[in-house]
Amino acid sequence: MAIDKQNLPELVKEVRRQLGISQEDLARELGVSFATVNRWENGKSKPSKLAKAQFDSYCAKMIRQGKLNLSGDKR
Q1: Which domain holds residue 47?
Q2: What is the CATH number of the domain that holds 12?
Q3: pLDDT tens sequence across 34-70
Q4: Which string of DSSP letters, residue by residue, matches the chain?
Q5: Can you give the pLDDT at residue 5?
Q6: How many structural domains compose the chain?
Q7: How far is CA 1 from each of CA 34, 37, 67, 68, rounded to the nearest angstrom?
Q8: Is the pTM of this model over 0.70?
């Protein structure tokens, strides 16, 4: 999904910005540690296949609920 469309650190920051959540909140939603989200956002590591799938699924759910827009449109 979206991870391939832009670099991961920017994507994680943008998702959190639009949703108004902290790294800790995102980590809780994805079932990973705060440190993991922090490393993704700072470009220190990339998500495992499972974590990437969880992130993609979470983003898709937020898009369906109208809470997230990753298309580049500034609505």
Answers
A1: 2-64
A2: 1.10.260.40
A3: 999 999 999 999 999 999 999 999 999 999 999 999 8
A4: -GGGTS-HHHHHHHHHHHHT--HHHHHHHHTS-HHHHHHHHTTS----HHHHHHHHHHHHHHHHTTS---SS---
A5: 46
A6: 1
A7: 22, 18, 17, 14
A8: yes
